[in-house]
Amino acid sequence: MRVLSVPSRAFFWLLSLLAASLLWFVSSQLRGREEPALLPLGAAAAVLLQELSRFACFRLLRKADEGLAALSEDGRSPMSLRQMAYVSGLSFGVSSGVFSIINILADSAGPGTVGIHGDSPYYFITSAFLTMALVLLHTFWGVIFFDACERRCTGGLGLVVGGHLLVSGLTFLNPWYEASLGPILILRLCTGLWAFGTAGGSFHNVLKCLSCK
């Protein structure tokens, strides 16, 4: 028995995207034009809406988990919280990655040459690395976020939301890619180690895996 498929969990991210799009449309209409100052505010609002959707996903999965546990013969759910957190985070990451890279892939088909007017020739490869980092970060954030919700740890929730806002803010430094991509990759590594520890991983388990024991 499965507790909500990957597409079902990705639907929560799509709802946050729809809400952020509607908010941006209304703000632009009220202002009469798309002011540059609206872009950072819109990005921050989109991040907060995504995290609210992640929390809604956690609450729904928690209710479903309790219902499945009540129906099972041994009184236990067929899926653990860590499994649900991983799948939910991966769903958010894949959805976010697809929407962030699809327009770039369309532009890469031409016409035009990247860097012909003095811009960075590393636009596409940098965008690929940023998308990869975002997918992994969402997966890690899902594991940490669900664990923090389960333990009612506001500090963990705050760090996830803060990290998401930081990553979103760093992308505004583009096309100064050294200032944006470097810190994001470092944050991805640190967040991955944090999620690894949260999921019960340890250096001893890594050694056992590598030694095939």
TrEMBL record:
Keyword terms: Membrane, Notch signaling pathway, Signal, Transmembrane, Transmembrane helix
Parts of the chain that traverse the membrane: 84-102, 122-146, 153-173, 185-207
InterPro entries attached to this UniProt entry: Aph-1
Signal peptide (from-to): 1-28
Cellular localization per UniProt: Membrane
Domain of life according to the entry: Eukaryota
Coiled coil: none
GO annotations of cellular component type: gamma-secretase complex
GO BP term (any one): protein processing
Pfam family, one: Aph-1
Subunit structure: Component of the gamma-secretase complex.
Family label: Belongs to the APH-1 family.
Protein name from the UniProt record: Gamma-secretase subunit APH-1
Organism: Sapayoa aenigma
